[in-house]
Write a structure and sequence with these properties.
Helix content: 25-40%
Mean pLDDT: 93
Radius of gyration: 25 Å
Number of strands: 23
CATH topology of the largest domain: Aminopeptidase
CATH superfamily of the largest domain: Zn peptidases
Largest sheet: 9 strands, mixed
Structural class: alpha/beta
CATH architecture of the largest domain: 3-Layer(aba) Sandwich
Strand content: 15-25%
Low-confidence stretches: 1-6
Number of domains: 2
């Protein structure tokens, strides 16, 4: 049997590197691709008059066209471009450019209205024809002085994501472009800071995807703890890991109950981030991520098709780990504790049975009527620990929790529940800005009675609207001695997998949520108004 810690995962492709340059786009040494934005021509009363251009070309087009002796606008129109976001047309160059013999390709990219979302999606579209290339120079980021760098870096990076466990390295056509030059942007303090932040956001999304994509014959709770240890060392975080014996001694019955059927024992992972200027009054935010490294459904076994994507059932945990690693880079001003309750929900003679009763951290009990509703069991322990031991100003959990949220929202929007309006608004707005949209659902109290159990404090598998029932179940674990702690619950089962390549999403696990959390926690005052509503 191969040891899960033997390092058998081969080296993986990495995200492109990024640099700023104020120089000419086509003259940057080593660049073999130049990408130019295409915008829709403004509508005028004389639209359609003879000779009127259907599109406009963005910065750099005139200089490049002159250098090449090519009418790029005519080629754009001949290619049928309209300027719609994500449209592309490629122009091969066999002989390069006069001041850059390496140049081999010009890509024209539609940017629509050049909003931050448009630029992110345009950059994602650019990533695909640039696979296998050495370097691309582009002026896309110059269309928005405030948000352009972030949009281009995030879109181009995440659309380049790849993972391979083949016997040979991936072919060149599957590898991301090595280097991206954001042309027309100065090396000033603001741009340098924007680039660092953008690379951190993109890197967190990439890393969360990577963790969620790793197969479960390598990825078990101990492996997750090892990844956390690496992050702690690299990013100056404090680490604590509970093994199965410590979990038992301290009363984490939900985590133990879910993990007891597996040969890979469970873990609880804690990472602590402290901002450079923190003091005694600096508030603490706790992030909790579901870390089920494989979900068979337990004795309430899933159908075979339902297990195909279950290596990614620790997406919430991956998001929390990736977020913790990037907090310093985005300038998070509050203390943050990341908790990942990690277990494998397996089937064996020692697995939890329907009808068993588990005692959670803090004493609350749950009757397990559905062993496939395991995520809420491990989250309950971690939430109770957070509220009782850490005195948080706010708690946010992230989990691929219910199929019901996918039925409600499809596969492009995540679910948001919250007991505090200010916290809900802050997370919702950050998610919109980051390109990881959420939709808020009600914690409708009329359904509370469905949680009732005749033998325990709650039933983990009640009838009713799945996503709401799960959120109501979790809500009980964020009630401290002084009342409910401000709490938000992100059910991202709807967006845990991308069914196809679309914008910055590549097919497979998405790592959805890391950019949203970092955008929120990297703001000037993440907790403004929280706890007052």
């Amino acid at each position: 049997m191969t040891s899960p810690t033997s390092g058998v995962l081969p080296p993986q492709v990495g995200a492109p590197g990024f640099a700023l340059s104020a120089g000419p786009r086509h003259g940057v040494g080593g660049v073999d691709v130049v990408a130019l934005p295409v915008l829709p021509a403004p509508i005028t009363p004389d639209e359609g008059a003879p000779g009127e251009a259907a599109v406009l070309l963005g910065p750099g087009a005139a200089d490049l066209g002159e250098a090449l002796g090519v009418d790029l606008l005519a080629l754009a129109e001949a290619s049928g471009l309209t300027g719609r976001t994500g449209e592309t047309a490629t122009i091969p160059l066999a002989l390069g450019a006069p001041d850059n013999p390496d140049l081999r390709l010009v890509v024209l990219v539609g940017v629509g209205d050049a909003t931050p979302t448009d630029l992110r999606r345009a950059a994602a579209a650019l990533a695909r024809p640039c696979r296998g290339r050495v370097a691309v120079a582009t002026t896309l980021a110059g269309l928005d002085a405030e948000h352009g760098i972030e949009g281009v870096v995030v879109g181009l990076s995440l659309a380049s994501f790849g993972f391979s466990w083949r016997s040979a390295p991936p072919p060149a056509v599957e590898r991301p472009v090595t280097r991206v030059v954001l042309a027309g942007r100065e090396h000033d303090v603001a741009d340098d800071a924007a680039l660092r932040r953008a690379v951190a956001l993109a890197g967190a999304g990439w890393y969360a995807r990577h963790l969620a994509t790793v197969p479960s014959n390598l990825k078990n709770p101990a492996w997750m703890a090892e990844q956390a240890a690496l992050l702690a060392e690299r990013h100056d975080l404090t680490l604590r890991v509970w093994d199965e014996h410590e979990l038992e001694n301290e009363g984490f019955g939900g985590i133990l109950g879910v993990g007891q059927g597996s040969v890979s024992p469970p873990r609880l992972i804690r990472l602590d981030y402290t901002p450079p200027k923190a003091g005694r009054r600096t508030p603490t935010v706790v992030l909790v991520g579901k870390g089920i490294t494989f979900d068979s459904g337990g004795i309430s076994i899933k159908p075979a098709q339902g297990m195909e994507t279950m290596k990614r059932d620790m997406t919430g945990g991956a998001v929390v780990l990736a977020t913790m690693a990037a907090l310093h880079a985005v300038g998070c001003p509050v203390k943050v504790v990341g908790l990942v309750p990690s277990a494998e929900n397996a089937i064996s003679g020692s697995a939890t049975r329907p009808g068993d009763v588990l005692r959670h951290y803090g004493g609350r009990t749950t009757e397990v009527t559905n062993t496939d509703a395991e995520g809420r069991l491990v989250l309950g322990d971690a939430l109770a620990y957070a509220v009782r031991e850490l005195k948080p100003a706010a708690v946010v959990d992230v989990a691929t929790l219910t199929g019901g949220i996918k039925v409600a929202l499809g596969q492009q929007v995540g679910g948001l529940f919250a007991n505090d309006d200010a916290l809900a608004d802050a997370v919702f707005s950050a998610a919109e800005q980051a390109g990881e949209p959420l939709w808020r659902f009600p914690l409708h109290p009329a359904y509370e009675e469905k949680l009732a159990s005749k033998v325990a404090d709650a039933d983990n598998g009640p009838s009713g609207p799945q996503a709401i029932m799960a959120a109501l179940f979790l809500q009980h674990f964020v009630r401290g001695p002084g009342g409910p702690v401000p709490w938000a619950h992100l059910d991202v089962a709807s967006v845990g997998d991308a069914p196809e390549e679309r914008h910055e999403w590549t097919k497979g696990p998405t790592g959805f949520g890391a950019r949203a959390l970092l955008t929120w926690l990297g703001s000037a005052d993440p907790l403004a108004g929280v706890g007052t509503s």
